[in-house]
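re: ur question from earlier - yeah i can do the single chain one, its not a big deal. heres the input i used so u can compare w yours
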Amino acid sequence: MEVENAVAQAKKELATRFDFKGSDARIEQKELELTVYADDNFKLKQVLEILQVKMAKRNVDVRYLDIGKVEKIGGDKVKQVVKVREGIATEDSKKIQKIIKESKIKVQASIQGDAVRVTGTKRDDLQAAMALIKKEMPDLPLSFDNLRD
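and the output i got, formated as tokens:
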């Protein structure tokens, strides 16, 4: 939902900015795949920057974006596909599970679809596990949910 709102805000800004008047700069969204169109590479980078700023304002971590290669589409026009990741990849979830098991913290990690569920009796152990995962896997955009609260 936040991604859709960020895309809508970016589209509004593209429509009102003077430097994009008369250009073919636009963003199209199909589910979790965004396609960014522009007249040249410079404008494409500007559109991507606007999109990333809007997502950051909507509290969407920009590390969730997998930015593809720039493709030429006739004349000078270019496009770029940006995929929005959802959940944790299987190999990353296995790494997280292994890190938790090797740490000897009294918690259990289980892989549930595209999420890793960590259970334990003490809140301090769970917080220690969260800190360990953040330290060991800094490049992953992780969010932690407490199911008790």
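The mean pLDDT is 87. not sure if urs matches, ping me
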